[in-house]
Amino acid sequence: MTSEREVQEVLARYVRATDARDGKAQGALFTDDAVVRIHAKTGQGTYEPVGEPLIDGVAVRYAVENFMEPHPEGGSSHHTTSDCIIEVDGDSAHLNAQFVVFRVRARRRPETGWTEGALGAQGTVEPYESGYYDTWLRRMNGDWKIVRHDVLMDMPMAIPEV
Amino acid sequence: MTSEREVQEVLARYVRATDARDGKAQGALFTDDAVVRIHAKTGQGTYEPVGEPLIDGVAVRYAVENFMEPHPEGGSSHHTTSDCIIEVDGDSAHLNAQFVVFRVRARRRPETGWTEGALGAQGTVEPYESGYYDTWLRRMNGDWKIVRHDVLMDMPMAIPEV
Amino acid sequence: MTSEREVQEVLARYVRATDARDGKAQGALFTDDAVVRIHAKTGQGTYEPVGEPLIDGVAVRYAVENFMEPHPEGGSSHHTTSDCIIEVDGDSAHLNAQFVVFRVRARRRPETGWTEGALGAQGTVEPYESGYYDTWLRRMNGDWKIVRHDVLMDMPMAIPEV
């Protein structure tokens, strides 16, 4: 497998862990000194930080397990990425990807069965977040790990005050 | 071309054949002993089968030609995939991909021309299905063919009773 | 990096330049004799040209800078591509990709703060255009440049009369 593909598959595992709310799998993708920051767009090409940075895989795991909203019954999501630009330089790599997040809500089958005329997938798929992932990785013992991960959101985030 | 890319392009041809409702092109991507199964999600990580499995490329072709709803006038679709995880082991390969399906409906140009103020693409693009493809392939005479294809839908499917 | 990946990253840079309305970056991806044409679908597998072809990178740059609608305040877009089929033959390459374009509109934070109950990304992400890019590239002095780019839109385009 090429190094570029290895790097891209780290991102593929990252989005699966996010959608599965699997903090352990997510945390394992990061180094002990990783820095994760979320930014919200304030204008063309300008951003402001959202909340405090997360430091290291343990913090990432904690955040996934404690701060990500669980899926409701019938709910799931897809963090999809596209159009990766990847530069590998020895054991260091930089990745930039577009992302679009979809919220999926399955309809529950009525006890009396689907209504007449219902055909195909029953539920809704709706995009609701987008932006860019800008990510640095380091190869350690043959595995690529994320050392810095900036999530550049296209929109401002409303965060409950603590 | 790397083996991983070859495998990924089988998926790229699969989605094009699906969107074109091209049963012949679709069937040719599968081996004679291929098994295709559709599953609907019943909970976090759990699925139930939808209908009977399809066995072999001939059945796949038949299904595309006879069971897939044709596009209406102005209609098209895009089965898009993302974030592939691919493992190649000699002449065997495993692929896991996210998918989101979009329904496209083009507006028909009024005989009197577009209404004043209309600008850009005239029609709608709407996501309506999503899930994961989980696929096994085998290299035969230099070409990768699908031997097993599981479509893991995020939603239940309403199927007309026969 | 493999040639296929190099070709795919030209497309990744193309969509970023489009979304950033960066005519200079966009124009630099094309050769001096490049031909860019937009087509609108008229039926299953049939298309008609939209407007006149653009010839060369200078024209591409001019078009991006003068004909593409600027993003409004809070606005952005993502031209996402997927399921690339790439054939490289020496210094020539052919690429076919699906595309879906998303329009992003960020909500502006009210001066009195987000309304109670607001949570997460504030704004909308909406697909509104789709189709296929069919693209030929040539390797010149080690860099892949686009020589021919056909944008196959799924929908008709309303264009203001000049």
Features:
21% helix, 162 residues, homotrimer, 8 strands, 3 helices, alpha+beta, six-stranded mixed β-sheet
What does this protein structure show overall?
The structure is a homotrimer of 162-residue chains. Chain A is α+β, with helices and mostly antiparallel strands and 162 residues long. The first copy, chain A, has one domain (3-107, 122-153): Nuclear Transport Factor 2, Chain: A (Roll). Helix content of chain A is 21%, strand content 54%. Chain A contains three helices and eight strands; from the N terminus they run ααββαββββββ. The first copy, chain A, has helices at 3-19, 23-27, 56-67; strands spanning 30-43, 46-55, 75-89, 92-106, 120-121, 123-140, 143-153, 157-158. A six-stranded mixed sheet of chain A has the order 2-1-7-6-4-3, with helices on one face. In chain A, a hairpin with a 2-residue loop joins strand 6 (123-140) and strand 7 (143-153). The radius of gyration of chain A is 18 Å and the shape is globular. The mean pLDDT of chain A is 94. Chains in contact: A-B, A-C, B-C. Chain A binds chain B through residues 1-2, 5, 9, 11-13, 15-16, 20, 71, 74, 76, 78, 80-82, 102, 104, 106-107, 109, 114, 118-127, and chain B through 2, 4, 41, 44-45, 69, 80, 82-86, 88, 98, 100, 127-130, 153-160.
The CA-CA distance between the termini of chain A, in Å, is 45 Å
Oligomer: homotrimer
Major sheet details of chain A: 6 strands, mixed
Largest interchain contact: A-B, 33 and 27 residues
